[in-house]
Amino acid sequence: MTIFPGYDGTALHYEQLGDGETLVAIPGGPGADARYLGDLGGLDARRRLVRFDPRGCGRSATPADRASCAFAAQAADVEALREHLGADRIDLLGHSAGALTAQRYAAEFPHRVRSLVLVTPVGRAAREPDPAELAALRAARADEPWYPDAAEADALLAAGAGDPAALAGRITPFFWGTWNERARTAAFDPELAPAAPWMREAFYASTSTNTSADGVGLGGRVGPEPVAAPVLVVAGERDGMIGTAPARLVAALHPNARLAVLPGVGHRPWVEDPAGFAALVGGFLDGA
pTM higher than 0.90 for the full model? Predict the structure, then answer.
């Protein structure tokens, strides 16, 4: 276990797998423990894979100021990690909500980013799902045995009825391309689930452009900003959590972006198709 100070001194955690050029991986959630990323389908065989627990997540400390957990503010923590690692430039991977932090970092520190990998991103600078696409993706699973219970939970969530945490667990099958034992094991590991109930609001917060004492922005709302570095955007064809629409928006934003929609998988493609995912991302990184 390795601890380093974030931009404001908050104790942050990361761990390394493998050797080679540095690939920093930012988890989603927001608020999830980075261990759920595993070895990202075997990418540690190609890179020095650095799994980073953002502030308030996993084994990192909770900051005194929750506003500092906004994704825009957390770009400064990624820069602190890069400096701590002693890497002149990094390859950066963001999954789901973590893709917002990754894009923000690449926009603010373009000279430090060699390439950017955005896996099932939630959007460009906010969540940007297409409700019609999500409805169609979920309805397409109607012949699966778990569907009636998941559809009922989905309707209750939409109506604001029932316990949101329990209902969220019941709709989890929609997020996977195939709902099997492997998916259930990965989805319901209680040790790695987002723990802080306030994290989601803080991460997506639209605050004033206040800054800390050292001048670092504390999460003021930022808009989409193109990144010049090579970008690989990976979507899951059956991703009923966020859909493919956000990935398409992200790929259209960045001038040197490539979009890959992986067939038959959902929100965590490295779990459902580890070989295909590692070959795709590894090939991109090797050529970046």
Answer: yes
